[in-house]
UniProtKB/TrEMBL annotation:
<keyword id="KW-0547">Nucleotide-binding</keyword>
<feature type="compositionally biased region" description="Low complexity">
    <location>
        <begin position="195"/>
        <end position="212"/>
    </location>
</feature>
<dbReference type="InterPro" id="IPR041569">
    <property type="entry name" value="AAA_lid_3"/>
</dbReference>
<comment type="function">
    <text>Severs microtubules in an ATP-dependent manner. Microtubule severing may promote rapid reorganization of cellular microtubule arrays.</text>
</comment>
<feature type="domain" description="AAA+ ATPase">
    <location>
        <begin position="393"/>
        <end position="534"/>
    </location>
</feature>
<feature type="region of interest" description="Disordered">
    <location>
        <begin position="79"/>
        <end position="148"/>
    </location>
</feature>
<dbReference type="InterPro" id="IPR050304">
    <property type="entry name" value="MT-severing_AAA_ATPase"/>
</dbReference>
<dbReference type="InterPro" id="IPR015415">
    <property type="entry name" value="Spast_Vps4_C"/>
</dbReference>
<dbReference type="InterPro" id="IPR003593">
    <property type="entry name" value="AAA+_ATPase"/>
</dbReference>
<keyword id="KW-0067">ATP-binding</keyword>
<dbReference type="InterPro" id="IPR003960">
    <property type="entry name" value="ATPase_AAA_CS"/>
</dbReference>
<dbReference type="InterPro" id="IPR028596">
    <property type="entry name" value="KATNA1"/>
</dbReference>
<keyword id="KW-0413">Isomerase</keyword>
<dbReference type="GO" id="GO:0008017">
    <property type="term" value="F:microtubule binding"/>
</dbReference>
<protein>
    <recommendedName>
        <fullName>Katanin p60 ATPase-containing subunit A1</fullName>
        <ecNumber>5.6.1.1</ecNumber>
    </recommendedName>
</protein>
<dbReference type="GO" id="GO:0005737">
    <property type="term" value="C:cytoplasm"/>
</dbReference>
<comment type="similarity">
    <text>Belongs to the AAA ATPase family. Katanin p60 subunit A1 subfamily.</text>
</comment>
Length: 645
């Protein structure tokens, strides 16, 4: 990049900054920035940069003038004045105005102004008018626009803040000319400040304008300590209440009245009361903002399922009145649709089991486990006031042991006995192809459990969800596990209100307790081994499974119990089912199998024949135990290490 390109670039940056400041009404800052730009760009050294600077300055000045014209006209309208023609037209009028016109010409041609243009020139004219007015009161009374500007000048706020007002008050043009003058002076070094064009100007206005006071500190161009604020205020015409109009000089035209409603106008009422308009506008804006806020709020405050205490007063009232609870989905989204409706619907469909309908009586043996669960799960729900301090309810209970030993049944029995809503959660329930949905599902699950409280959340095969966290594990899984840990913690300490406490119980089951994440294991404070059924247990299992099935007296139950050592509850259930089908199979084979399909319907009646010892022996040959001795050993070991009885 060449030197001139760089200068041009720098200048452009400053100009855009200056324009930005002007746009926000920071005129002093705008001018000073422009000055700085000229200085930095080393103006007048490179022709192209100089030309560019001139063009931009012209445009900049015109824009500023236009802006002040608009403000002054608005101000006039606000106070009942007729809007005036643009500044250019006004200038013409000025130029026709004798001495003032001459001065203006001199001003315009004053070499003190680089590029021959200065901003806010009509204010400048006005200043001249005022000045002349001091000497000759009739001087400018016939120029309404200038008088209008004069009224501006009378306004204290403007006087304090506008650059030219400052100039006016200080009688120091150099403050105002600074963007150009400054730069030009700087060319010759600090000592030359104020020399350029000084004589020329002074000769015209010796009493008013002193160049020796040239300030090269930009901040001294404007006196107001809070100029930015004041300028902003001044940009708002409604803030400039003009109680000091001079009706002799510039009588306001009568406001335009609608012919149809012509009524005698007593007072000078502005056609447009900008204050009112602005108030209306503000009200509208406020209304719009309020509406916007409401919309935004509605967007943000959609019923997030994971929001704690998400119950609406109505829903709570309904609940209190003992009415049947609406579904969580409807509670969250009354019309059934919302950002998380799919997830909620999925959980409600797949996970919530409103009526598990299993009693402890249906479970053979396992008395210890039953007692422990009732103590750990049911008592805190039934008598929460007792479970305080050191007796706080358990965070969760883990049931582990060989497959098919009744762990799920126990969980369901707990839920049924405690009349809690049962959430049967498996790994697949929380799996989602969408990133972030799994952890969200966990949050929704716990929130839903709170909604349906008292609830029992049962994580079946929890090792699949809460296995040990390892390096390189999928991030979504880690997050889901972390969320689970948080939620389990939250469940045990969610509320200080006794009524609400421990309304959600976490139960989990696994056949692989050694795979569990340590943090999760810690949260499942009670870890109960659900073993294979004992002799007594197997006997009970035969009795439970053979309920309602006709059995012949020849069956040796003791022998069968003996032969099923090592069988799980599920194995014994399979054995009994197998045996129960034997009469039907026997008959079917006798009839020629499935070839003679027409007779099959009659078979059902004919096969209601009592089971015999032979059927069970046959079934024993088909159904083997499913749990290996090695597995049993591992459970025993883990129980010894981590279990609790
Ligand atoms: N103690 C028991 N009393 C009655 N039935 C039992 C018992 N244990 C197992 N069963 C039978 O086994 C079936 C499976 O039981 P359940 O699902 O509770 O076992 P589980 O321990 O959860 O198995 P897994 O670990 O494989 O999930 C039950 O439907 C039931 O018929």
């Amino acid at each position: 990049m060449s030197n001139s390109d760089k200068q041009l670039e720098d200048l452009k940056n400053y100009i855009s900054l200056a324009r930005e400041s002007a746009y926000f009404g920071k005129y002093s800052e705008a001018i000073n920035t422009f000055k700085k730009g000229l200085e930095v760009a080393g103006m007048f050294k490179v022709k192209a940069v100089e030309q560019y600077a001139q063009q931009v300055w012209e445009k900049f000045v015109l824009d500023l003038q236009a802006e002040f014209d608009i403000i002054s006209q608005l101000q006039a309208v606000n106070h009942g004045f007729k809007p005036q023609p643009p500044n250019g037209a006004n200038k013409q009028a000025n130029n026709q105005n004798g001495q003032q016109g001459q001065q203006q010409n001199q001003l315009d041609h004053d070499k003190k102004y680089p590029f021959g243009i200065k901003p806010f020139s009509h204010f400048e004219d006005n200043k001249m008018n005022n000045n002349n007015n001091n000497n000759n009161n009739n001087n400018n009374n016939n120029n309404p626009f200038r008088q209008q500007d004069k009224n501006f000048l009378h306004n204290q706020q403007y006087q304090n803040n506008l650059p030219d007002q400052n100039m006016h008050n200080n009688q120091n043009y150099n403050n105002f000319q600074a963007p150009h003058q400054y730069n030009m002076n700087r060319q010759g070094g600090p000592g030359m400040q104020g020399n350029y064009g000084q004589n020329n100007y002074q000769s015209n206005n010796p009493s008013n304008y002193g160049y020796n006071d040239f300030q090269d500190n930009p901040s001294q161009n404007f006196n107001s300590p809070n100029i930015e604020y004041n300028q902003r205020q001044n940009r708002n015409p409604a803030n400039n209440d003009q109680g000091n109009q001079d009706p002799d000089v510039w009588p306001a035209p009568p406001p335009k009245v609608n012919k149809a409603n012509k009524a005698p106008q007593k007072n000078k009422t502005p056609i447009y009361n900008l204050k009112e308009l602005q108030q209306k506008q503000n009200d509208n804006n406020n209304n719009n903002n309020a509406k916007k806020d409401d919309k935004e709020k509605a967007k943000r405050d959609y019923n997030k399922p994971w929001q704690r205490n998400a119950q609406t007063p109505q829903a709570k009232k309904k609940g209190d009145e003992g009415e049947k609870k609406q579904s969580f989905l409807n509670f969250c989204y009354p019309n059934g649709q919302g950002p998380d409706s799919d997830l909620i619907a999925m959980l409600e469909r797949d996970v919530v089991d409103q009526n598990p309908n299993i009693s402890f009586d249906q479970i053979a043996e396992l008395d210890k486990a039953k007692d422990m669960l009732q103590e750990a799960v049911l008592l805190p729900i039934l008598i929460p006031q007792y479970f305080r301090g050191i007796r706080r309810p358990l965070k969760g209970v883990l049931m582990f042991g060989p497959p098919g030993t009744g762990k799920t049944m126990l969980a369901k029995a707990v839920a049924t006995t405690g009349k809690t809503t049962f959430f049967n959660v498996s790994a697949s329930s929380l799996a989602s192809k969408w990133r972030g949905d799994s952890e969200k599902l966990v949050r929704i699950l716990f929130e839903m459990a709170r909604y349906y409280a008292p609830s029992t959340i049962f994580f079946d095969e929890i090792d699949a969800i809460g296995s040990k966290r390892v390096d390189g594990e999928c991030e979504a899984n880690r997050k889901m596990k972390a969320e689970m840990l948080i939620q389990i913690d939250g469940v045990s300490s969610s509320s200080t209100d006794e009524k609400d406490r421990k309304q959600v119980m976490v139960l989990a089951a696994t056949n692989r307790p050694w795979d569990l994440d340590e943090a999760l294991r810690r949260r499942l404070e009670k870890r109960i081994l659900i073993p294979l059924p004992s002799t007594e247990g197997r006997k009970q299992l035969f009795e439970l499974n053979m309920r309602g099935i006709k059995c012949s007296d020849d069956i040796d139950w003791v022998e069968l119990v003996g032969k099923t050592d090592g069988y799980s509850g599920a194995d014994i259930a399979s054995l009994c089912r197998e045996a129960a089908f034997m009469p039907m199979r026997r008959k079917l084979m006798k009839e020629g199998g499935f070839k003679n399909i027409e007779n099959i319907e009659n078979l059902a009646q004919e096969s209601d024949i009592p089971l015999t010892q032979k059927d069970f022996e046959e079934a024993l040959r088909n159904v083997n135990k499913s749990v290996s001795n090695d597995d049993l050993e591992n459970f025993e070991k883990w129980m010894a290490e981590f279990g609790s009885v």
